[in-house]
Write a structure and sequence with these properties.
Blueprint lengths: L26 H12 L2 H9 L14 H14 L4 H10 L1 H7 L10 H10 L2 H17 L8 E9 L8 E2 L6 H11 L7 H10 L10 E2 L7 E4 L5 E12 L5 E8 L4 H19 L22
Antiparallel strand pairs: 1-5, 2-3, 4-5, 5-6
Helix pairs in contact: 2-3, 2-7, 3-4, 4-6, 7-10, 8-9
Length: 297
């Protein structure tokens, strides 16, 4: 076989569809579509989201079933941003097929995902989550006998340099200027303040004294790599027999596992009771207290 050579080619203006390269269906997404179609997921999603849309006014928006499929793609592909999901879908023929889009149809961009996310309330996502759990139950992929809880810190979309004092509202530089003036240093520039801050002993940044003005629910926490950042705590309850996630919660990053763990178990129990069509536990459901945070765009 001779060595091939890559050379730039001029793109044809018109390409017959029978000349397009054939792409094999992705086995995972093809099977997932079969399961979703069998459970009538699209009908469920459309009926669930119907109250959030106008009746026969304006042009049709993105189908709810397509929107939630894009969120599933982000989960399965490990993509954390809406922009990344939109790019991935636009670049993949097999994902187009999973979404039910033809080659002539445009894939949704990240701004469209943002509008839908802002339109739908949090209970809608919780109902979709429970619907998926019921699908797992119907396919014998949910036991619910032994649960494990895993927690991790997630960096918030909030910079440490923007935090302010809770008592007076001063930012970090203004706070350092006050410390410098107390030590007799007047009219110090930013470089001098940073140098003084690095050498300052006993330096602590407490959630009791500091907050982020744009994200008051974020907490100052040490990440797993040792960095100090504004963060949240994510906690998952997992079925240890099948590895199915039965509950997810977002808490303040400064709360310990002994505080959030029992609440996660109550939430998981409530979801399992809902799946088994029993009366929902009074303490179940997504925990309140944190404002809904936007996904990175």
């Amino acid at each position: 076989m001779a060595l091939g050579k890559r050379s730039p080619k001029q793109t044809d203006l018109w390409i017959p569809t029978d000349k397009l390269a054939q792409v094999s269906r992705h086995p995972f997404y093809a099977k997932l579509n079969e399961v979703l179609d069998k459970a009538k997921f699209d009908d469920f999603a459309e009926e669930l989201c119907r109250p959030y849309y106008a009746e026969k006014l304006g042009r049709p928006g993105i189908a709810p079933g397509l929107y939630f499929r894009m969120l599933l793609i982000g989960y399965f592909e490990g993509i954390e941003s809406q922009r990344g999901i939109a790019w991935r879908v636009q670049d993949s023929l097999s994902l187009r097929e999973f979404l039910g889009l033809s080659l002539t149809e445009r894939t949704p961009d990240h701004s469209a995902l943002t509008k839908i996310r802002q339109r739908l309330d949090e209970p809608v996502y919780n109902e979709v989550f429970l619907f998926v759990l019921k699908m797992l139950e119907g396919n014998k992929l949910l036991k619910g006998k032994t649960l494990g809880i895993d927690a991790t810190t997630l960096e918030a979309n909030a910079a440490m340099k923007s935090i302010v004092r809770k008592d007076g509202g001063e930012n970090w530089n203004e706070y350092l200027k006050q410390l410098a003036e107390a030590e007799g240093i007047k009219e110090a520039d930013v470089a001098t303040l940073r140098k003084m801050d690095r050498k300052r002993k006993g330096k602590k940044v407490s959630n009791k004294d500091w907050k982020h003005p744009k994200d008051p629910d974020a907490r100052i926490a040490k990440m797993k790599d040792g960095r100090t950042r504004m963060a949240y705590k994510s906690e998952h309850s997992v079925d240890m027999d099948t590895q199915a996630i039965v509950a997810i919660s977002i808490d303040h990053a400064d709360q310990g596992d002994t505080t959030t763990g029992p609440e996660s178990l109550i939430e998981a129990q409530g979801n399992l009771m809902e799946v088994h069509q029993k009366q929902r536990h009074p303490g179940s459901g997504r925990r309140q207290g944190l404002s809904q945070q936007p996904v990175s765009e």
